[in-house]
């Protein structure tokens, strides 16, 4: 999508796909499946076992395989979790700015999204979260994004404990989208390691660039196991079997590749900081500790609420507009750092040219 959506002269640094060669063990798993004609329906718990082993090593937390279910992808998994733990029209609390489909999926279900904007430091503002819980009412759901797309904020154990406490006080169930978890430089704390009544969605799709190979896992803790047990069996028909093979290989044998990727992303964060200082010093950027997305505050450029329009029109560089990310998105753009230093440099140079021409 990243390289196909716009005309050829547009440099794409928008959608969350990475410009990386596939991890070799992942490529091999796909090649082996094709060679064998192993392209049928999924079966078994290999993906869940691979995630459990990865989580144990990486985060010191071992989710129980019997409390995991395969789902088609993270967002469809989120929708299924909503169905399990809330009434069909229960509102959904989200922390804006956030991944736009959080609003789109909620609205397409005929539900209301209730915003709890992050603070100016891009962290959860507990006053705004509690107010949103009160507005949403008992029986609502809270869709937590950890790490947060687009800011890269990695929520701390203390923050997650406060989330758990407030959600119990206000009768709100927590669904945690943890798709970006492997892409963290800080210590990542899985929500279920602090609150065993939550539900989590994880996948190898972001960290190993496998969005086209659909698969994800829904995870319950001891306190939510009975909820997940009610997941209709037919939901497990949705994920791709080849996707599951690829995700399993990534979590099992793709860790060296992931570590190299994380190093490269750190270098790109530093490069972006330097490039902005040189070419667009009025843009504010605080490198996040998770994800490969950079959330750029362009309000100092005087380009209005949607600077991505100027960058695209005049600079032929495609970034995500901040507007669909909800409150806090006006005047911002989201840039994808998971590319080569050359493309990153060219992208900032194009943005600067576009700005100078206004
Ligand atoms: C926070 C978040 N959740 C979900 C997704 C999409 O995941 P999936 O394709 O598995 O639905 C993305 C993709 O960028 C994302 O950033």
Can you walk through the features of this model?
- The protein is of the alpha/beta class and 358 residues long.
- It has 2 domains: 11-21 and 256-356, Aspartate Aminotransferase, domain 1; 24-253, Type I PLP-dependent aspartate aminotransferase-like (Major domain) (Aspartate Aminotransferase, domain 2, 3-Layer(aba) Sandwich).
- It contains 11 helices and 12 strands.
- The strands form 3 sheets. The chain has a 7-stranded mixed sheet with strand order 2-8-7-6-5-3-4, with helices on both faces. Strands 9-12-11 form a 3-stranded antiparallel sheet, covered by helices on one side. Strands 1-10 form a two-stranded parallel ribbon.
- The radius of gyration is 20 Å and the shape is globular.
- The mean pLDDT is 97.
- Residues 16, 73-75, 99, 145, 149, 177, 179, 203, 205-206, 211, 216 line the site of pyridoxal-5'-phosphate (PLP).
> What about the largest sheet?
7 strands, mixed
Strand-pairing-aware structural class: alpha/beta
Q: Specify the number of helices.
A: 11
Distance, first to last CA: 29 Å
What is the CATH level 1 assignment of the largest domain? Alpha Beta
Share of helix among residues?
25-40%
If you compute it from the alpha carbons, what radius of gyration comes out, rounded to the nearest whole angstrom? 20 Å
List unreliable stretches of 5+ residues: none
